[in-house]
Amino acid sequence: MSCYLSDRSQKVQSKRKRKSNDEEELCKPREKLDSGLFGEYLEKIWRSFSEEKRRRCTYFDSLWFNLYRSKSSKDKVLAWIKKANIFSKAYVFVPIVCWGHWSLLIFCHFGESSQTNTRSPCMLLLDSLAMANPRRLEPEIRRFVLDIYQAANRPETKNIISRIPLLIPKVPQQRDGNECGNFVLYFIKLFLSLAPDDFSLEGYPYFMKKDWFTHEGLDRFREGLDSMG
Q: Does residue 7 form part of some domain?
């Protein structure tokens, strides 16, 4: 009997040790994502969705917003965006990395009239570090959007474009200084999974709330990135 208890105790301790090691691995801080690795992960996430979902959406390269801010590359970026035909898409994901921090801008229904009740042109800015004041990006975002409309020769006036709402939902927040890139990838994955066909201001913030997802869910997502096909 004593040998049986001893063996059983060793098995329990071994299982606890493995669980502890797994938890330590999940919680271990990772280096901040660079744009190259971010792009690889985003492409994997994108391919995991159906063709139907992908057809309604598109995304920008994570360097485009920063390149747009440089006078020497601004026109190139606007030409690239014009080719992306974003005004035919329901949602456009714009990863932003500024001042060493990642956030996610989403253009919703830019091809729709502002008079439509069921589909409201708007912008969402998802930021896992609210204390850094994401609203400080608004002036540059609005210049960016105005230039996109004008480069595409859209009929909307400057006044109409300036009144497109920029909404900043209260989303889950990061635990350290390196998680922001993973948060942006997770935002994209979950938004693609849950986004309504018709995004309206009346339904805002939809699922984008403080309890949208848990940190444990983010950790599992992060661990699964390398194993994605």
A: no
pTM of structure: 0.86
Q: What is the DSSP string of the chain?
A: -HHHHHHHHHHHHHHHHHHHHHHHHHHS--PPPPHHHHHHHHHHHHHTS-HHHHHTEEE--TTHHHHHTSTTTHHHHHHHHHHTTGGG-SEEEEEEEETTEEEEEEEE-TTS-TT-SSS--EEEEE-S-GGG-GGGGHHHHHHHHHHHHHHTT-S--HHHHHTS-EE-------SSTT-HHHHHHHHHHHHHHH--SS--GGGTTTT-STTSS-HHHHHHHHHHTTT--
- CATH number of the domain encompassing residue 187: 3.40.395.10
pLDDT digits (tens, 9 = 90+) for 164-187: 999 999 999 999 999 999 999 999
